[in-house]
């Protein structure tokens, strides 16, 4: 045993390695009743090797793992496209109210009036924000919102007897868009971005035709730029009888400032975990409600929440519905948080977006001389820089910059996305950051640009202050070890 | 607004640094025709105390599991969620981090997911698990998408005893996959292996549930064998809380095991958020949807964890990805990990045995005829002498919610009541159920 | 700005330094009513300089401070005399149940039956554990329990018309004992410890007389040793008409194994935050109930919880009571946790003490050769080593050992107490530690003993892996800076 | 037992290492005559789920502030506890650490206490604060002990308008301090400065409360001046939540300021745990009881925090200590720090103004005669046309708990009702109170 500063932080055994045969924490109730015998073939033959620990070490284990995790609560987290804003603590209290947390989803509508009213209120606010009248809360995340949207398009065209098989996405689109297109059974076409960062209208006109079902677009785009030709874009699609789908990942830029419905979009998804502060939870949960124009409303997934006078109910009787995309009426706990967030802002939700845009532009202004700026415009809530100048001059990549930021106590931005920008650094500060945190980040980025010139090896070998250094990701993929294997667990040889 | 930090002085300094005289200039890029010209028509802002009061009022109008003695299950169960789950759910670091794209920043989340994957593999008997799907329904659609890539067949077979919502979601997705969906009826509450084998002969995948939605235990090994023999992927939809007493899908030869994780570590929460799990044999690892964490080493040779096999995923493979999923249900899955670690093998076995014992007791004690003559795990279906919904209504007037009326999903089962227990129920609770049912049927 | 590994951990500004004029988090409700004018002299003249922050930075601030704090949840914490055991997480849930957390202490008894029943049950269990019939839950901590006990003695002798002015404490006594003696208006006398670590009976006999009100004793003592002559000790005091007070700080050693009442003690306090796992909270809260013999029961602080059939009530009508020592009926939230703890163990509370003793003896056995053992006996739940061998041979003190342990990720034991052992290291592992954590500690202690010989300078300058190195404590006391002074805050010059 | 980790194998190994053949041998040191020979007669062990059920059942039998509209205050108030307090209360590190004896391990706790001390000093206008006392009662006894050391006088004067429980605790402690306790009556709800000056002439200390227990605002500056002029320590018992609108004790010349911290950041919790605060002018710093944190530097010159002036304390000074306190109420005090940081100066002013506005509205709206003709802050005493307890009983039948019957503490006030508001109450709440009182008095 040696004492190495920070050693404890670095070494955290697997929960299985903390296990000892015969230890236990939970003691479930055991009624004084005989346990019936099961038919032999149905009975478990090999007991599962769950970890065996008493409670104290379980708590320490997860505490230690939390210590090795960086969240928004830890510090600045400008992960572009992900809107890593502050998650109000009161939401955790509210979602845990017994009337919400312990409500069974098979409850009769009359026993869930509070929950249904909350969902109905949430729908109303979402509709107002999107400028579209009808909302389904069911989709579990943005990606599922996309897929739902594409299914809605199909149902819409089916009823109209139109056969349209192609969806157009931008070359800046998030990977979920093309993936959703395939899952929905559509063909994909791609439209290019012009020199100002808008959709290339000429390219678009050439690609839209009677086989085109619709467009999927993020606006502002993943470049953080509002499409200045959005009105023409909408005209082109609507002119061809096609629909427009709004990927709401970047809605945080425009709440109260510009509405997708007014831009011409027919279907919109929201990411409740981005714009409306459901905590990201290390990967999820999320919420991906979808709003649509009246003409598409009949196809929404069932059930939907409706209001009859003062009474709320789940309407399952939706003959034209595309069907169900998830269990029950959606991730209710996420709705509680999103609704609380909206009610905390009220009409000042507009401030939220304004400050998000202001913060991003401030950081952009302070960094534009040290990094390459591929599109020289004001940005919306995020912006994309390129490290290609550092790469050209010093061999320093976007990844090196990202890793070195960690040593400054800052989470890296999104890197290498969107694909149209080489060595991309996609920076989204969010509105909940105070100016000092923005300045810390700028200072760190400027210091790194200088380090790139003066001591590039420090960057190449960064991070230096995290529990681990850079990982061998090739090995992880080539010799995959995807679970603990107990006695047969492969030894780590380097 | 207490979530925002900029002071007027901050704003002025920042605008100056940007080189604009007002915030509006930043929005010049929004064409005037699509600018929103008025205030949002939404209810006024509430301070935290007012917000809490408003939501407490809404919550108070719901009849939750604490307000009556309830035997409703049917997919969502009132198992005990241990307090160690709070350690996961309340730690700001777990709560406010995102997908661990930068492994050096997220070793905690990554290691926990790796542990979760191991637990899922152990319970299901599979080789590989992903980091979670949305819920027990969408993982079935995901499994179809796996089948679509490993098979040329374009049909999937769903046992009618599979959770109705799961079947609905599969049907919704099937259209995009170009899949025909066939449902297979039950005989006395379970699926017949021969019938299933016949239906599977031109199917890409076959789905069944164990224990099934009617509460019965299927002859799962025979069903899996029938599907496998017919050249279809066999997919078992299972309940994690049963897998210490019921055989694992891996042991009886399934290709994939999926399910709803809620019963292990999540609150009912009116339907979510929960986690769906999806595990498979190693044959299908490169067709798995979603995040997967792997073990590797860092530059110093130190053990470390990282998202791996990412060439399956949408951000790399785009339209050729194995799924479009990105945001998943990690936090809920980790609550599941904490819960299952807390139970351990012994605790989980005891939960299973308590469920078996109590459901058997219910079967004997409740003065109703069991609807099916099959072994059960934690749910028992009974025939009711009046419409089951009517019986439910009457029993609830006496403070007991006796179960789920299966007629909500199954035609011809208007007189079948599905009674669920978990280890939280006691003999006294069941005695009370029995006497209330006796009263309302008298 | 420079990047230094672990830098963020080291630098945490004061909440006042994160403040900016005009920022805010909470927005209290503001009814649409006029605010009445107050008379000028009553009106606040200078606004308090509370910090001004938005919520995101408040959360980060306290998260960062928590990160700089080591608790039982972080790791091994063998702080002798403090019983730093695992604090079950379920207690936090239970204490937060609205029926407990939101119960107003002026509630009528009939509206607090659940709370009163809990308190009554708790009293019953405490009485059974002590072997004494009557309990007050009111005292806020062990020290207040002591003071209450001494007040009870006075009331007891007052009623009997006896004037007794002296309390005897052991030379191993915790500082609270003599301090309580003074606060209770008694004189102090001190009895010595003999070579086996028991009270010196001869010394005792010489000191006990008709002026002696009583003895205050910790048993097992702060040396972790059970007083083998306890029966004689009790005889001596009772023979002189005096009373015996049991300082329950070390009760964790004997629950279900030996009862203070059976040992001859007349008054006992419990430390609910030690034996019964109320989390220590960085210093508190605690709970210090007191149990007494029947003859002392009339003097207990009012109110006490009584049971009439199936009904529970607070009895305020206690004419002989010493009076109230704290507000209301005691720290109720602490009772919830302590009661839950006892109910989780049931009669197996005895296991708790047995394992506490086993763990301590195991660590002792493994360390006895490397450190000096002043009393060569089996210990109870804790033991005291001396680093005098290291000091003599290598100039390494108990403090150096303590500071070096930090680099091994372990909280130091209590040092320099009890005063009778030079260079004392007072080690209490508690029962909730698994063997591996004990072994880690032993390995670290053995490594340190070796380092003392081989590289003493590493120990002298330890810790090396904490957010700060050793502090200038003299400066803190000589030039006290006890609050932040804003613009006039003294600069730190070293 | 899920809190214990030792396996049988562990035990065997450990006994071998110790060199004993059984656990019993370790207990040889306990004389046979005092060994406990039977099993503890306590209720049987409960698993966590059963434990939760049992305590939930107990909790459900209490009528808490959420179950009726309540205007009961009288020392414990239903101010809003913001969710940022949970960050302090739920973090394992804060929760499971003890007194920061080893500063290198506890910089977080120490810095937070230093911040707390600063906040208390700012609010009270004092120079130094300790890290907390047990509650608002015991800090008064602590203040007496300060007075006992800085003065030769052996008397303390308590305004009768001081919280009755505070007075009771002072009386309990006074015996040991050798203090005589004198209580000073009120005139129309407040203490007369001249009478107080007279009583103070041979007193070591004088205690009054602002706002006082009857809800009235004392002429606190005049009281402090009268005490000071008489050579007694003036001690003000104050409410932190009032100190943005009411003058600070420091500004009107008090020697010490003390109080109950519950209103700022703690739940009612049937009386505790809460925190008492105690602050003084710098003259008395070396007589302060309890922990005090100071700023210093570490070996590298880095700013750091440490427990200081420890020569005041029992572990160093023993029978000469300024107090016997060791365990205090740090966690609750830090919840107070988080709450007050969340409010900030503006928020606290708004809380104060809302209390002023609502209590004024109550005074006008409630159809009862105010008992005293004095300005108020958040509590108003009214005369009732029937015994106040009877009025309370009747109003509660209508779902409103109208307040605290002062006859519980003050002879001759059987017909006085003390109505408390906080910023959580609304105009509608008060209208409802008014109409219920109208009804029950009709
Ligand atoms: C632009 C964009 N579109 C879609 C998505 C998918 O959303 P989700 O992660 O909620 O499924 C994301 C985020 O990951 C995104 O950034
Ligand atoms: C032996 C002993 N006696 C008394 C006390 C005082 O107890 P408390 O801290 O609960 O006031 C302690 C602990 O600090 C102690 O260790």
Question: What does this 3D model show about the protein?
Answer:
The complex is a heterotetramer, with two copies of chain A (494 residues) and two copies of chain B (442 residues). By secondary structure, chain A is α/β, with parallel strands linked by helices. Chain A has helices at 7-10, 55-67, 90-95, 98-101, 113-130, 142-159, 176-183, 201-207, 230-239, 260-263, 332-345, 349-367, 388-394, 398-407, 435-454, 456-460, 473-478; strands spanning 134-136, 166-170, 187-191, 212-218, 243-247, 267-269, 290-292, 304-308, 311-315, 383-386, 414-415, 424-427. Chain A has a seven-stranded mixed sheet with strand order 1-7-6-5-4-2-3, sandwiched between helices. In chain A, helix 5 (113-130) packs across helix 11, helix 6 crosses helix 7 (176-183) and helix 12 (349-367) runs parallel beside helix 15 (435-454). Chain A is globular, with a radius of gyration of 25 Å. The mean pLDDT of chain A is 96. Chain B has 442 residues and is of the alpha/beta class. Helices cover 38% and strands 14% of the residues of chain B. Chain B is built from 14 helices and 15 strands. Chains in contact: A-B, A-C, A-D, B-C, B-D, C-D. Chains A and B meet through helix 2, helix 3, helix 4, helix 5 and helix 6 of A and helix 1, helix 2, helix 3, helix 4 and helix 5 of B.
């Amino acid at each position: 045993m040696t004492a190495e500063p920070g050693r404890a932080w670095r070494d955290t055994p697997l929960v299985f390695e903390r296990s000892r045969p015969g230890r236990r924490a939970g003691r479930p109730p055991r009624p004084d009743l005989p346990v019936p015998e099961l038919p032999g073939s149905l009975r478990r033959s090999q007991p599962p090797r769950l970890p065996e620990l008493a409670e104290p070490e379980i708590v320490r284990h997860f505490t230690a793992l939390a210590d090795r995790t960086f969240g928004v609560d830890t510090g600045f987290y400008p992960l572009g496209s992900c809107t890593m804003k502050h998650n109000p603590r009161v939401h955790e209290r509210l979602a845990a109210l017994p009337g919400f947390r312990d409500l069974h989803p098979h409850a009769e509508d009359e026993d869930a009036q509070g929950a249904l009213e909350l969902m109905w209120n949430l729908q109303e606010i979402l509709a107002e924000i999107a400028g579209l009248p009808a909302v389904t809360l069911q989709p579990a995340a943005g990606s599922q919102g996309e897929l739902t949207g594409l299914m809605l398009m199909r149902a819409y065209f089916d009823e109209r007897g139109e056969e349209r098989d192609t969806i157009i996405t931008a070359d800046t689109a998030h990977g979920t868009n093309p993936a959703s297109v395939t899952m929905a059974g559509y063909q994909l076409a791609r439209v290019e971005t012009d020199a100002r960062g808008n959709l290339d209208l000429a390219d678009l006109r050439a690609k839209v035709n009677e086989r085109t079902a619709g467009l999927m677009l993020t606006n502002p785009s993943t470049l953080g730029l509002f499409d200045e030709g959005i009105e023409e874009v909408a005209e082109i699609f609507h002119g061809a009888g096609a629909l427009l789908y709004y990927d709401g990942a970047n809605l945080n830029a425009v709440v109260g400032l510009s509405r997708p419905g007014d831009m011409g979009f027919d279907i919109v998804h929201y990411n409740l975990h981005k714009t409306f502060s459901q905590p990201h939870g290390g990967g999820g949960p999320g919420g991906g409600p979808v709003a649509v124009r009246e003409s598409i409303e009949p196809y929404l997934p069932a059930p939907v929440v409706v209001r009859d006078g003062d009474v709320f109910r789940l309407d399952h009787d939706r003959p034209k519905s595309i069907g169900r995309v998830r269990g029950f009426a959606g991730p209710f706990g996420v709705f509680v948080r999103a609704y609380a967030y909206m009610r905390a802002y009220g009409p000042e939700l507009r401030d939220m977006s304004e400050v998000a845009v202001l913060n991003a532009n401030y950081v952009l202004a302070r960094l534009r001389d040290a990094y390459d700026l591929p599109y020289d415009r004001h940005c919306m809530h995020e912006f994309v820089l390129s490290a290609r100048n550092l790469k050209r001059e010093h061999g320093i990549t976007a990844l090196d910059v990202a890793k070195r930021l960690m040593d400054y106590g800052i989470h890296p931005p999104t890197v290498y996305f969107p694909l149209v920008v080489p060595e991309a650094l996609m920076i989204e500060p969010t509105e909940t950051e105070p100016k000092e945190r923005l300045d810390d980040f700028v200072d760190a980025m400027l210091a790194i640009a200088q380090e790139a010139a003066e001591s590039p090896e420090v960057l190449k070998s960064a991070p230096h202050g995290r529990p681990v250094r850079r990982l061998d990701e090739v090995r992880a993929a080539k010799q995959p070890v995807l679970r603990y294997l107990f006695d047969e667990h492969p030894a780590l040889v380097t | 607004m207490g979530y925002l930090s900029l002071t007027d002085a901050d704003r002025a300094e920042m605008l100056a640094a940007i080189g604009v005289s007002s915030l509006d200039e930043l929005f010049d890029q929004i064409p005037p025709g699509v600018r929103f010209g008025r205030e949002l028509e939404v209810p006024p802002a509430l301070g935290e105390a007012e917000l809490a009061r408003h939501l407490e009022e809404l919550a108070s109008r719901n009849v939750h599991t604490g307000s009556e003695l309830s035997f409703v299950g049917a997919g969502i169960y009132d198992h005990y969620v241990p307090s160690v789950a709070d350690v996961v759910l309340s730690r700001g670091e777990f709560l406010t981090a995102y997908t661990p794209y930068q492994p050096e920043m997220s070793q905690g989340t990554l290691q926990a997911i790796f542990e979760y994957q191991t637990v899922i593999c152990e319970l299901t008997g599979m080789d590989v698990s992903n980091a979670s799907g949305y819920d027990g329904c969408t993982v079935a659609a995901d499994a179809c998408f796996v089948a679509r890539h490993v098979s040329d067949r374009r049909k999937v077979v769903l046992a009618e005893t599979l959770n109705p919502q799961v079947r609905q979601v599969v049907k919704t997705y099937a259209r995009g996959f170009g899949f025909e969906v066939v449902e297979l009826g039950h005989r006395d509450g379970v699926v017949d292996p021969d019938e299933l084998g016949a239906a599977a002969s031109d199917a890409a995948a076959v789905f069944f549930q164990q224990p099934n939605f009617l509460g019965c235990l299927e002859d799962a090994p025979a069903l899996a064998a029938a599907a496998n023999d017919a050249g279809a992927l066999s997919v078992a939809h299972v309940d994690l809380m049963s897998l210490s007493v019921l055989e694992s899908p891996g042991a009886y030869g399934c290709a994939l095991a999926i399910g709803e994780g809620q019963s292990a570590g999540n609150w009912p929460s009116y339907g979510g958020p929960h986690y769906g799990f999806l595990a498979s044999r190693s044959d299908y690892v490169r067709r798995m949807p979603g995040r997967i964490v792997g073990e590797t080493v860092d530059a110093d040779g130190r053990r470390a964890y990282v998202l791996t096999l990412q060439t399956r995923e949408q951000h790399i493979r785009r339209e050729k990805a194995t799924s479009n999923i990105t945001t998943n249900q990690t936090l809920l899955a980790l609550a599941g990990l904490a819960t299952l670690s807390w139970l351990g093998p012994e605790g989980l076995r005891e939960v299973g045995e308590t469920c078996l014992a109590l459901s058997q007791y219910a079967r004997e004690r409740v003065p109703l005829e069991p609807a099916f003559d099959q072994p059960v795990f934690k749910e028992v279906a009974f025939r009711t002498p009046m419409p089951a919904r009517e019986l439910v209504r009457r029993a609830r007037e006496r403070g007991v919610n006796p179960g789920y009326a299966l007629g909500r999903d199954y035609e011809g089962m208007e007189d079948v009541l599905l009674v669920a227990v978990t280890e939280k129920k006691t003999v006294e609770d069941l005695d009370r159920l029995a006497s209330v049912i006796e009263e309302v049927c008298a």
